[in-house]
What we know:
Number of helices: 8
Number of domains: 2
Mean pLDDT: 78
Structural class: alpha+beta
Helix content: 40-55%
Strand order of the largest sheet: 3-2-1-4
Number of strands: 6
Amino acid sequence: MLACFDLAANEDLQLQADLETRATFSSKAPVEVTSLLRSLSHAARERLQKEGSVIGWLSQNSSLALALALRREAESLGRRATVLLGHLALREATPHAWVRLYLPEGDFEFDPWFFLRLQDEPAFWLSWGLSPAADDYLSGHEGRRLCWGEVPLPAHGMPCIGSDETTPAQELLPWPEIDLAAQGFVFPEGYEITLQAQGAENAYNMALAALRALAFVVFALIALGLLSPAGWRLLLYLPYAAVLAWGQGRAWLRLWSLPNGWRSALEASLFHAALVTVLVGKDTVLPQTLFVIYWAYNRLEPWWRKLRSKEPS
């Protein structure tokens, strides 16, 4: 739904909406469709690599480059596809892009960026109490996305455009400006999206942040020798652990069954083991040592593997 508003100088327009996040991973696409989406994703990544494009997983802008590449791959097979632009409802509204494919089996929205990223970072969604496998994105998504429109911009028939033909549509409509050269997109100046968790989610986030801060302050004081460790210090950690388990426990358990997910689950376990050891005053540094070594291994091993794969055979 699109609308126009005639604002005077220094006037602002605020629109508020209540959003309910709900994952759709339970929906199942036909095997033929998931097989096509899987092959298109890898072909799109290979296309970008051959073109010299760099997909930086730390930058959400790479989702647009990957979506555009997948659309080209689909069209090369005679499949119609459009790129969807929107935002992910994370801690902040994060620009994102994915694809809608029109197939004989139906219309399917697919996110190649998360399908590929979760193969390298299976614990990406753990903070939100989710642990989807990469293949889950072949038939659903996490339910935290807002779609604003598609590429290319279907300007015909839109409101406001006829009122001033000299004004670009992007300045009249809350639509992302697309900069394909930079493989990114942003909202025009003056547009801003803010997210505020409400209800149970907001209460959980506030409780988790407060209890985490308390546990880590006690941990830091003990580590610095300003507070003596004792068994009762553990009582300051248990509420934090309980709230954390309530929000992320099921997702953490599922990580153990995912390819490479067990590595993230084990790292989290070693971290909490090291924390508890300090709080209760155990005379050992084994958990802390194991955590530091394993933490460094998980970050250096992928880099070393990619470096080895580039060496000439």
